[in-house]
Every structure is written in structure tokens, then in C-alpha cells.
């Protein structure tokens, strides 16, 4: 009787493949790595701290951005994450999740946070400085300026917008003018009583410009664009920047 081998025939396997099965990250890992989740956690933490400091009478000094910001420079940053109440917080939180999750797919955590803080701070300062010229008291709280910047980036940095603008070959200043018109339209459409319109306009315009320059995209490629176009992208970005001067 002939013996039978216990080994089964089958496709040969590369020894280097053993033990390297790729696993998708769990929900907990995704949340832990998400800059949008980080930002939302900071906002919630700051709001909780606002309640405590309001009881102590120090909330205004710590979080409100107003014309006295030179004496309280920390408010330039803390005001971005602070909110006037639960409804204000909820509205911005929903918008942050919807828009932030889209943006974070195309940028790094560092760039995301730097963009959020810087655009939020600039938008708040614009509201305080320019708004004070009207003679009315100005005080700003909230992440809406930064969130409008995220919206602007997604509008100008997506594949359809980049392809359209590149094909039209409009001068950079004309593109900036169109961006300003879009920012005015969106700002007015989303305006209301007690809304920081100047901050919204500034944030959206900053986002539109940043999206056109693709400042956040890892590898300097447009959102959803082929990474093989990096040299051309950098060259176009350089020319676009010079065109604004």
C-alpha cells in the first residue's frame, strides 16, 4: 500500500507574507486618531471649564475675545473653542463633525489643528477690530470662524473646483474677487441676530484662498487629485501667489 502525504497542494505562499495580515483600525482607534474628535473634545472641555469659571467670575477674562485682547492675548486662542451656550455649542459641533471629517481625510493632524486655530483666531480678530469701527461693543466666542474656513477649503480645494479654475485660467485677483463674492453670499445667507458676520466672512475667505493654494493637502496635491501632479501643483501655487501681489 502506498502511503499518503498529509500535506495539501495549493498556491505557493511568500514567507514574507506570514503574520502581516492588515487589519482595519477599530472605531476607538479612528476616534483617537481623528483631529476632528480632538477638536470636539477640546471644545467640550472648554465649555465645561466655562461653567466653572463663570461661577468664579473669571470666564470673561479667560475666554471672551474683545477690544482688550492685547491685555489678554490668550483669549485670541481660547475664544475659538469657547461658546456662548448649549445651542451655540451644538450647532458648531454638528457643523464641525460634518465638515471636519471630510477635511481630515486629506491632511495631517498637525496641519488640521494649525489651520483651525489660526483661521479661527484671525476671524475673531477681524470681527473685533473691524466691528469696533462701527462704534458698537464687540465680543466674540465660538469656533464658527474656523468652521467656515474648513468649509471654504473644501469648496475651493476639491477636484471639481480645481479642474474648473485651472481650465478657465482666470487671473488670481479675479479668482480672489470671486471668492470674496462667494464669501459674502454664504455669510449673508447664514446670518442672523447676534451672528459674527465679519468672522464668518473672514474665515470662509481664508479657507477659499487656502483651498485654492492647497495648503493643507498632504503631498501638496489637490483633494482627490493624483499625487503624480505634485511638481505642477507646486508651480501653479507659486504662480497663483505671485499673481495676488
Main attributes of the structure:
globular, 245 residues, mainly alpha, single chain, Rhomboid-like fold
Characterise the protein shown here.
- By secondary structure, the protein is mainly alpha-helical.
- It has one domain: Rhomboid-like fold.
- It has 11 helices and no strands.
- It is globular, with a radius of gyration of 24 Å.
Overview in brief:
The protein is mainly α and 245 residues long. It contains eleven helices and no strands.
Fold blueprint:
Elements: H1 27-33, H2 35-56, H3 59-63, H4 75-81, H5 86-103, H6 109-132, H7 144-157, H8 159-168, H9 172-189, H10 197-213, H11 230-243
Helix pairs in contact: 2-5, 4-6, 5-7, 6-7, 6-10, 7-10, 9-10
Rough outline = globular
Mean pLDDT: 84
Helix fraction? 55-70%
Name of the CATH class = Mainly Alpha
CATH topology: Rhomboid-like fold
Structural class: mainly alpha
β-sheet strand percentage: under 5%
Uncertain runs with pLDDT below 50, 5 residues or more?
A: 5-10, 225-229
Structural domains: how many? 1
Can you write the helix and strand succession as a string? HHHHHHHHHHH
Total E-strand runs? 0
Reported for the largest beta sheet, the result is: none
At CATH level 2, the architecture is: Up-down Bundle
Please state the CA-atom Rg, rounded to the nearest Å.
24 Å
CA-CA gap between termini: 91 Å
The helix count comes to 11
CATH homologous superfamily identity: Rhomboid-like
Amino acid at each position: 500500500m502506498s502511503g499518503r502525504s498529509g500535506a495539501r497542494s495549493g498556491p505557493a505562499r511568500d514567507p514574507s507574507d506570514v503574520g502581516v495580515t492588515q487589519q482595519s483600525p477599530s472605531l476607538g482607534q479612528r476616534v483617537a486618531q481623528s483631529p476632528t474628535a480632538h477638536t470636539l473634545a477640546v471644545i467640550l472641555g472648554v465649555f465645561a471649564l466655562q461653567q466653572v469659571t463663570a461661577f468664579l467670575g473669571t470666564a470673561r477674562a479667560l475666554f471672551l475675545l474683545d477690544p482688550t485682547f492685547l491685555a489678554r492675548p490668550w483669549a485670541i486662542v481660547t475664544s475659538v473653542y469657547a461658546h456662548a451656550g448649549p445651542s451655540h455649542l451644538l450647532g458648531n459641533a454638528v457643523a464641525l463633525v460634518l465638515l471636519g471629517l471630510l477635511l481630515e481625510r486629506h491632511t495631517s493632524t498637525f496641519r488640521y489643528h494649525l489651520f483651525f486655530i489660526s483661521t479661527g483666531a484671525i476671524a475673531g480678530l477681524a470681527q473685533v477690530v473691524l466691528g469696533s469701527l462701527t462704534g458698537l461693543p464687540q465680543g466674540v466666542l465660538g469656533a464658527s470662524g474656523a468652521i467656515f474656513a474648513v468649509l471654504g477649503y473644501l469648496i475651493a480645494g476639491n477636484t471639481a473646483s480645481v479642474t474648473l479654475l485651472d481650465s478657465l485660467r482666470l487671473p488670481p485677483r479675479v479668482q480672489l474677487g470671486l471668492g470674496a463674492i462667494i464669501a459674502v453670499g454664504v455669510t449673508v445667507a447664514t446670518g442672523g441676530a447676534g451672528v459674527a458676520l465679519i468672522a464668518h466672512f473672514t474665515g470662509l475667505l481664508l479657507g477659499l484662498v487656502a483651498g485654492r493654494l492647497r495648503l493643507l493637502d498632504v503631498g501638496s496635491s489637490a483633494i482627490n487629485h493624483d499625487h503624480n501632479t505634485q511638481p505642477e501643483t507646486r508651480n501653479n501655487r507659486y504662480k497663483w501667489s505671485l499673481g495676488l501681489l
